Amino acid sequence: MAILNRLMRGRAAASAAAAAAAARRFAAAASSEVGAAFAASVGREGETAERRTKRDPRSWNVQWVFLGCPGVGKGTYASRLSHLLGVPHIATGDLVREELASSGPLAKELAEIVNQGKLVSDEIIISLLSKRLEDGEAKGESGFILDGFPRTIRQAEILEGVTDIDLVINLKLREDVLLTKCLGRRICSQCGGNFNVASIDIKGENGTPGIYMAPLLPPPQCASKLITRSDDTEKVVKERLRVYHDLSEPVEEFYGRRGKLLEFELPGGIPESWPKLLQALNLEDPDDKQSAAA
Ligand SMILES: [Zn+2]
User: Which keywords accompany this UniProt record (predicted)?
Assistant: First the structure.
């Protein structure tokens, strides 16, 4: 991380174009693999056609993947970054839901799989994702942030044949904190709103940094209607995490070997983590600047 920060020290404005220009400046100096991958990820604008492989996305400049265990909040950070960079946030769970709700070619097959409680196959996910990327390219989208994919080493290998991934951001959170957070999840039975009653405030000790995460409390009208999802028990959450780690460790190694993995340890809740994540990516949030100035 320190190397990346050093490489990416300069200031890039939040627009993708400005980020691309900045990345080109840093690309020359980038000697760390992840730094180079990042520089490449936002520096495609000026590349020649010969250097691009597989897809030819003239202005595609962010092709990122978000990894992170269930409950870490990767959807939130992926969504915020997608707004900031002006690229779509593509969550494979959403693709499945959209296909199910449509009259698309896979809708019937998917409905059967889901109704039987089976896992959607890699082939179907890849097919939905390829179509989504093609549609996006046709519409002139300038990149993407993938969330929830690739989940397995096999998916990572298949994805490599479909498109180039520039950077893989692996969001991490202390396991004890993650467990507390998952067990604090509540849903409003009336409006469906998501809340979290866990209040995390661990003091740092022996060189380990403390961690603070505020609860996300419901408004008064929801407070008496909160329910816990039946699968948010300690046993189920721990099993979910174990399965996740078994599958994701090879995926992390896969991208690590290719110099594309950026490990990011969440230092707390969104107010603590968002600015540090932007710093690690050498991005600035213009909204934050405005609110700081106001
Ligand atoms: Zn409510």
Answer: Kinase, Nucleotide-binding, Transferase
Which CATH number is correct for 2-174+263-282, 1.10.150, 3.40.50, 3.10.620, 3.30.70?
3.40.50
Active site residue 240: yes
Q: Is 74 a residue of the active site? A: yes
**Looking at the chain, how many residues does it have?**
294
By the 8 A CB rule, do 63 and 163 touch?
yes
Instruction: Tell me the CA–centroid distance for residue 226 and ligand 1, in Å.
Output: 8
- Residue 168, class by beta-carbon neighbours within 10 Å (0-12 exposed, 13-18 middle, 19+ buried)? buried
Nearest to 129 by CA among 77, 169, 165, 172: 165
CB 8 within 8 Å of CB 26: yes
pTM score, whole prediction = 0.74
Question: Catalytic annotation on 151?
Answer: yes
Task: For residues 96 and 116, give the distance between their C-alpha atoms in angstroms, rounded to a whole number.
Answer: 15
State how far the Cα of 144 lies from the Cα of 34, in Å rounded to an integer.
18
Query: How would you label 123-154 residue by residue, b for 16+ Cβ within 10 Å and e otherwise?
Result: ebbbebbeebbeebbeeebbbbbbbbbbbbbe
Tokens 């995490």 belong to which residue? 241
Distance 219 CA to ligand 1 centre (A): 8
Q: Which of 174, 240, 258, 276 is catalytic?
A: 240
Per residue in 29-77, pLDDT tens? 333 445 444 544 444 444 433 333 333 333 447 999 999 998 898 999 9
Residue with tokens 């990416």: 8
- Ligand 1 centre to CA of 195 (Å) is 10
Residue type at 231? D
